[in-house]
Structure formats: C-alpha cells, structure tokens
Amino acid sequence: MWIWDNLSVHLVDELADFAAHNAGWLRVFQLPTYAPDLNPTEGVWSLLKRALTDFATADLDHLIRIVKRKLKKIQYGRICSTGVSPRPA
C-alpha cells in the first residue's frame, strides 16, 4: 500500500511510472491536495501560523519561547479558528 500525497517531489514522472509498472501488487491511495480532516495537526499549524503573523524574533531561543507560549494558548483554548477567544485569557 502506498499513500501518496501531493508534495511536489512526490509528483515526479519516475514515481508515477513506478506505480503504473507495479499496479499488479501495489495499491495507491492518492490524498487530496489539502486534507486537514485526515491530519488533525494541520489545524494546529494553521492557528500557530496565524498567531505568529507579522512577528519578528531576536534569535532562535526567543522564537522557541514564543512558539511554546502560542501552542499553550491553543492547547487551553485561548486561540481558536475564528480568532476570537472562547474564554477569558
């Protein structure tokens, strides 16, 4: 079984040829281009990217601290998909 996503490096002709040549024993499942329902973490990354919009850091340690803080806010429901806080911060 081969679960095939649409990452650009996976869409080269050689892989398509391999799948066609081995169709007798290889079953290929093509994923849609964007399928957040198949990967629940997609929603988390989407929220995190929105929370970090127009943000600059001084160094890598600062970025790590900010990302951890934003992930905690997402975990405890202070950042949601609508951008509105569902409960007081």
Largest sheet: 2 strands, parallel
Anisotropy-based shape: elongated
- Estimate the strand proportion: 5-15%
How many DSSP H or I helices? 3
Mean pLDDT: 79
Q: How far apart are the first and last residues' alpha carbons, in Å?
A: 46 Å
Number of DSSP-assigned strands: 2
The chain-level structural class is mainly alpha
Could you give the order of strands across the largest sheet? Answer: 1-2
User: What is the CA-based Rg, rounded?
Assistant: 19 Å
Fraction of residues in helix: 40-55%
Describe, in short, the structure shown.
The protein is mainly alpha-helical. 40% of the residues lie in helices and 7% in strands.
List keywords for this structure.
single chain, 89 residues, mainly alpha, 3 helices, 40% helix, elongated
Explain the overall architecture.
The protein is mostly helical and 89 residues long. The chain contains 3 helices and 2 strands, in the order βαβαα. The chain has helices at residues 13-21, 41-51, 60-75; strands at residues 2-4, 28-30. Strands 1-2 form a two-stranded parallel sheet. Helix 1 links the parallel strand 1 (2-4) and strand 2 (28-30). The longest helix is centred in the C-terminal third of the chain and has 16 residues, at 60-75.
